[in-house]
TrEMBL record:
InterPro entries tied to this protein: Methyltransf_16 (IPR019410), SAM-dependent_MTases_sf (IPR029063)
Coiled coil: 250-284
Keyword vocabulary terms for this entry: Coiled coil
Signal peptide, first to last residue: none
Transmembrane segments: none
CC per GO annotation: cytosol
Organismal lineage: Eukaryota, Fungi, Dikarya, Ascomycota, Pezizomycotina
Source species of the chain: Xylaria bambusicola
Cross-referenced Pfam families: Methyltransf_16
Name of protein: Uncharacterized protein
GO molecular function, one term: S-adenosylmethionine-dependent methyltransferase activity
PANTHER family: HEPATOCELLULAR CARCINOMA-ASSOCIATED ANTIGEN, PROTEIN-LYSINE METHYLTRANSFERASE C42C1.13
Amino acid sequence: MHYIRLLRPAKILSSTKGLVISILFTITTDLGDSFLCPEDGSIDLIAAVGDPAAGPVGSSAALLREAKTCRYKWKTGMRVLDANFALAPGLKKELVNCRFSIYPVQQRPRKTSTLLGALHVGDVLPWRVDSNPTLKMGVVMPATFEFVDGICSTVSIRTLGLGMRRSAREGGENDESLNLQFEEDIGESIARHIWDAGVVTSAYLADACSSPESIRQVLPIKRDTFNVLELGSGVGILGITIASILPEAAVAQEQRLRNARVLLTDLEEAEERARSNIAKAEAVLAIDHAEGANVNIEYENLDWDEGLEGRFGSLVSATPWDLIALSDCTYNVDSLPALVGTLSALHHLKEHHLDQENNGPVKSSVLLATKPRHSSEEALFELLDDQSWTYRVVKDIPLPKIGEEDEVVQVYLLQKGALMG
Ligand SMILES: C[S@@+](CC[C@H](N)C(=O)[O-])C[C@H]1O[C@@H](n2cnc3c(N)ncnc32)[C@H](O)[C@@H]1O
């Protein structure tokens, strides 16, 4: 997959014809190690601007009513695109409050209720895009930025359209589909960006809610509570998506969820962005979950070098986790011993909790998603074997691609303490 990335916050400049938004952006892979090279020589991009106060924030109906779009071409061989976007005449810079989205023409919203700049789960999963030959070639993650009083934010917003109706579970009449928005930094940072495995696995889990057999394999909910711990959560895309879909996942398994917790963890560097994304999600989910499940999303720092020693913060320690989830955390071979050690220490923690409750054998389950980048990453499986974890691939998901080598996101289920079920 490729991502539209700003190289610096956009600026508003004055020209003889009025104000223009000046945007310097690139389109690269998640790692930023290669630029988009379209097989047909180019792809067309749309930039759209709108006033967030004009209607439901950022909805295409509001933005299009404001009537401002512009087209650009990204050509094979390009590394950067320096684009200008003329604003309506007569505007004063300090009064510019708007949202700005850039997305490929082929990914423009098909319904007016759809957010501009959203990537839809159906555009990512190969078994969903088969009917659309342009999307089969691959998708580009759109980017959205916000101007407040003429100043562009230093984060870009990635929007994931989950494809399920908001409030459908409560029989509500709201027909807007559920969109999750994630801030990520403009600039380099591993912890403050989203990554392919997180995007694709989130799409896969949301899609799996429509199939009881599929969702049972990955989010097996057997009671009216379910607690998930995410390791290396980054901006929080996987954990927040899980929190958003848990009520649907439970319904698909004929359970009614009352209380659920999803705890995101990472290094301190990730904390600010993760907390901000939790707040954004809570604002959306508070409406959605109002009469249904109480799904609590939290964040706590957890360094695997500490976890390996069984040193956990108070939130991690407090719960025997039903599921541990992680995406794109196994690419750095040097950190694998600490990561696998942390998984085993969490298993011991669960044994300790459940022993006090006099339960039977304790089983820990881990949902691990990875986009294999190098054969050295296979060291993970030796470490898992050494610490008596069993593992199997639940799903291989080929990535949508444009001018790239074949890549795949693999979703694994790891278990310890019981035979692989
Ligand atoms: C490639 S990012 C993936 C982020 C997120 N899971 C996603 O899919 O978007 C890897 C994450 O692992 C975290 N990480 C790396 N080493 C870590 C450690 N020792 N303890 C905790 N987290 C760590 C990084 O901070 C980063 O957020």
